[in-house]
Every structure is written in C-alpha cells, then in structure tokens.
Amino acid sequence: MTGSGPGSPLGLHRVLEPAGVLPQAAWRLDASPGLWPDEVRVRVERLNLDAASFRQLREATGGAAPAMRAEVGRIVAERGKMQNPVTGSGGMLTGLVEEAGPGSPLGLAPGDRVATLVSLSLTPLVITGGLAGWDGRSEQVPCRGHAILFGRSIATVLPADLPGPLALAVLDVCGAPALTERVVRQAAGRAGGRPPVVAVLGAAGKSGSLSAVAARRAGAGRVIGVVPSEAEAATLRAAGLTDEVVIADARDPVALAAAVRGAGGPAAVTVVCVDVPGCEGGAVLATADGGTVIFFSMATSFTAAALGAEGAAADVTMLIGNGYVPGHARLALDLVRCEPGVRGLFEARVSESARDGKVEA
Amino acid sequence: MTGSGPGSPLGLHRVLEPAGVLPQAAWRLDASPGLWPDEVRVRVERLNLDAASFRQLREATGGAAPAMRAEVGRIVAERGKMQNPVTGSGGMLTGLVEEAGPGSPLGLAPGDRVATLVSLSLTPLVITGGLAGWDGRSEQVPCRGHAILFGRSIATVLPADLPGPLALAVLDVCGAPALTERVVRQAAGRAGGRPPVVAVLGAAGKSGSLSAVAARRAGAGRVIGVVPSEAEAATLRAAGLTDEVVIADARDPVALAAAVRGAGGPAAVTVVCVDVPGCEGGAVLATADGGTVIFFSMATSFTAAALGAEGAAADVTMLIGNGYVPGHARLALDLVRCEPGVRGLFEARVSESARDGKVEA
Questions:
Q1: Is ipTM over 0.85?
Q2: Mutating which of A310, A317, A318, A328 best tests the B interface, going by the most B Cβ atoms within 10 A?
Q3: How far apart are CA B130 and CA B144, in angstroms?
Q4: B318 with A323: Cβ contact below 8 A
Q5: Which residues of chain B does A27 touch, with a Cβ-Cβ cutoff of 8 Å?
Q6: Residues A76-85 pLDDT 10s
Q7: Which of A78, A172, A345, B58 has its CA 20 to 30 A from that of B348?
Q8: pLDDT digit string (tens) for A42-73?
Q9: What phi and psi, each to the nearest 5 degrees, are found at residue B66?
C-alpha cells in the first residue's frame, strides 16, 4: 500500500487499532512496505531490545533461543511493531535506508546506515527469516525485514569512527545523559547554591555510566555511583567515572538512602538507571528536600513514585525520563569518544553481551 | 501490640511483607491498634477513595452496594490498608484522634477531627461493622474502625469554617493546585518570557478546577480548560475559572492538540487531571516545545508518557504529580474560601456525589 496524500508526521495513518491513538499507544500498526510521501523504509539489520523488555521475555520464556525467537516473531506479526505487551516498551534498530519518500524531512538517502532514536514500540516492522541469527542471549537481535520511519521519527546516521554494536548500545540510551546534563546544569546554576551532589543508581550500566559523566561535566560537586554488587563496584572504580562508589540494593529504600548519605548525600539530583521494579521509594528517600529524581527505568511505576513521595512527605521533583532531548545522540557519542572510562565499560559490556547474553540497563 | 523502641517515622516497623520496603510498596501492613511512641491512632469516620480506585472497583464489581462493601472489606482485611491492588492507589480518610503517642511530632491531641494527607495505600487500617453505612455509590465511604499515623504521616485538623465533606473533597486533591502553582510561577518568572499559556485537562473536576485557579494566581497569561462534554463546559463557563473552555476527548491526541491550539495554545504548562487511561500522548502534543506536563492522574502510564514524548520528538518536561508540596492543604482550602466559582463547583459535586454516586477526579 502506498499513501496518496501526505502522511501524518506522527504516523497516525499507520494506526490500525484502536483508531485515533498515537502509534506508541496503538495495539496494531500497518507495517506494509509501500511508503507515504514523507516516510522512509529501512532494511533492518539488528534490533536492540530495551533492557526491561528483554528481561521480561527471558523470564517469561525461560530464555531458550527457539522460545525467544518465537515470542518476538509472534509479537511483531501480531502487532506490526516490536512492543512488549507486558512492559509496553520496545528498543531501537539499525539498518540500511532502502527508500526515502520525496517529502521526508529526515535527510536520509538510500544506502545510509542508520539507527532509529524513536522506540520500536511505535515503529512499523516486518520480520522475515524467523530471527535465525539470534541465539536469544543478547538484547541485540540480528534481524531481517523492513521498518518504516515517519516524518518525525528521529534517526541518525551511524558514526564512521565507532563500531556498529558500540554505537547502537550508546544511542539506545542517549536520552539519559542529555536530560541528566540539563537537570544538573540547572541545579548547579541556581544562585547561591553549592555544586550539587548527584546519585546515579545503576552507575555501572549503560545509561548509568553515561549519566554519571554527563553529571560531572554539567557541574556536579560530587557524583555518587550506586551499584548492587562488589563486582560492579570494582568495574566502576576502575573506570573512574564517579567520586564515590557504594554498594546497595536500590529496592531497599532504607539501605539505599543510608548508603547515599554515607557517601556525601542526600542527593540534589538522583538518576534512576536500574531496570528492576521497586526502586521508587529508595530514590525518593535518597534525595534531599527540594531535589529532583529522574526516572529513566522503564520498570518505574507512576503510582508508586507519586504516592511514595507523598507518603514520605518528600518535597522532591520527579521527572519521567523523556527519551528525546535535542542533541542527545551527539552528546552521548561525544561522551564515549572523550571518556575512556565510559568507552571501556561499553566495550566490555558489548562483547560480554554478545558472549553470554547478559543485559544491563 | 505496642512498640518498645521508637518507631520508624516512615512506618517501616509496620511492614509485614515483603520485608524492607516502604509501607506504600508493601503487600501487607500490621494494623494492630497498639501504638509505637511516635504514632497516632485515629477513630475512622469516613474514607475517601481516590477516583481511579473507585472507578476500578465499580467496574469490577458492577457497582452494587453489597459487592462494593465486600470488596473494600476484603482488601483491607487482607492487606491491613485500603490499597486497590489493580490501580495501586488509595485515597484518604477523616476521623477523630483517639490517642497520640508521646513522641508523635504531628501536634495532634485526642478529640481533634483530622484528615490524612498521606495515601490510604500506606496507612494501617482496620474496618469494623462491614461498611454498613455505605451505599457503594459515592467515593466517600462512611466507615468505622481505626487507622495509624506514622511520625511523617502528614495530617491536618479539619477547618471549622467549612463543612466536613467539602473540606475532605478539597484536601483529597490539594497536591495538584500546589504543584501547579509552583510550576506556573517558575514558567511566568522566566526572564523575557510572556505570561505562560496553561491548559488544564479535566478542568471542571476537583483537582482540575483548583489547578486552574492556582495557575491564574501564579501568573498564567491564559488558562484553557478542557472538558469532555457540553454539560461540563457549561458548568465550567458558569464558574468562570478559565479564560477559554474547549470540549475535547483527552484520549484523542490529535483532537486534543488541535483544540488547545485553537484556544490560544500550545500550552507552556499542561496539567492532566482526568482519571482515565490513555491521555499521555495528547498531553504531550498539546504542549509547546520546552514546556512542561504535570501528570496528576493515577491512571497515567509511565511507559506511555516516556515513549510517547520520545516518539513525537517532543522536548517537554514531564512531572510525576507529587501529592506533597509544603503548604498544600492551606493553599487549597484558601482557594476554595476565596474563589466562589471553585466553591460552588465543589459544593455541587459533593452533593451530587452523595446523591447519585457520580465520581470525578
């Protein structure tokens, strides 16, 4: 099918059901390959499932390759997009531009190797070949098929100076350092204030490590990295990304708050980058009155955060981590280029992920 | 049971399972009447279920009084608190202080008639008498039993100059106008900026009408009230709370954004006060780049908000509506005292709710 009129830049013309909602909220999209004039079709090479979705799929299926392949294939066939029905989240993809409609504002040309910076949860997708190349153990999924980009679907040409899997891993979480940078800069700029203390929960992970260095560059007085284990603590210390490294279970609010206090907290800004449920209360308690919590984890419960803060009489600002901040891709890639500690950590995770299926937020 | 040592101000000593979490996140609380030294016991007179929970209970049970009573009774008996297992939310209560522990910092004395300003979802509660006085048609539930307040459980003595059900209805949503006031004041104070346009979704409801007048007082240049029906539009126009009144379905993102634009938008600040799911995309699209969305609805999906904004490449700040802002109770009560339009709207809703079981956010 090809559209005759102009498409909606938000992709509303691809929504099959329910009618009238945005593609992200839709149950099912039209993923047929014909383009509306402002669309772009990408030949998919690789999906990058988000951490919360990958974890859910692994737990629900047991993690064996045939079951993982079947489940992802079933979801995409049924919905016309890779949106995990349980977590609601998706991920991103890389591929080669096959065709760009004459009205596309994205500036892409056939042959460009791109990464999408909008979620798979709203990207029309058709998979062919049954994901035969995926062993089910990594969130990076070799994949054949096609995907559709709308007029407002942000995508970026993959940088020539970084390996593809590394760039994909960085771009997957590029919203986190950008928003952290903005919030910490605002906190640091407040008249009469001391440089803010920033706590990053999950600081040895992908979004966490980038957020930690973004916080430091934005003027944090002290960056406290929180990790769940001695192994991650050793990694984080070796990378030198934070001023303090503490070990605490982010799901244990009292222990977490005590750990952050012991390292120089409470925090003016707390950044939640762990992908397990139940971290809302701890994040609130670790934050100073008048401070800000940024929730990037897709496992965050809106209700738990709202009522948890109220229940603790905590006057904290709580932000839903918006994955889009202008300039986010460039900022994140530059951090990886300029910060050897971050780059080393990403390279280790990418190879580890490829090797044994470990996934980190 | 009476505690021998000091209690935790957050009530951690009342958590039965799972261990170590905050009372809001707990599955089950110890609601026994004996007090720890910093606790207060209240003889309950009335529960005020939150709108999202009441709606869910009505839909799940069919709404008949015996079924509603049985379901609320079952939840409280099982969990030791009135936390709706589906929505995760609770509400608040009013009652008479029965006993205040010697170490309580709340300043309450036996005989004080109080309203709790922390959620029922974290308040230990025992119900006696089977809720016999409740017809199941109003979210205000006549109730006998006792509840426990912790050291940090905010509660307020009910004002003598306002009827009890009116004050309860106002206090139930007092976090919304307080946070709206703060955010709009910040937006209005930005150097070189014009007075901000504010859109309130659900402006004829309780939290919506208070938020609308709070926005105006905080320096909004134009307040746009969005309502779903001609009947609510007439109510809102008669109350005179907003500069513009528009009718739109907040679940239809394109229609909502167009309606707000047509009334002078996009909004610098959008306040979401409707209690139905699926309003995230519309709120984002109705908001200008660089603007802020405040989500007060307990039906908000974290994932839908985060990925919806990203998917639309919308650079908006999204706030989880924290029910606690210092001074929130006084601010909301003062708005009702000073704004006849708001007071009239609340009085009509309170009597309507008592009459025919209608519930509004």
A1: yes
A2: A310
A3: 8
A4: no
A5: none
A6: 999 999 999 9
A7: B58
A8: 999 999 998 889 999 999 999 999 999 999 99
A9: -60, -40
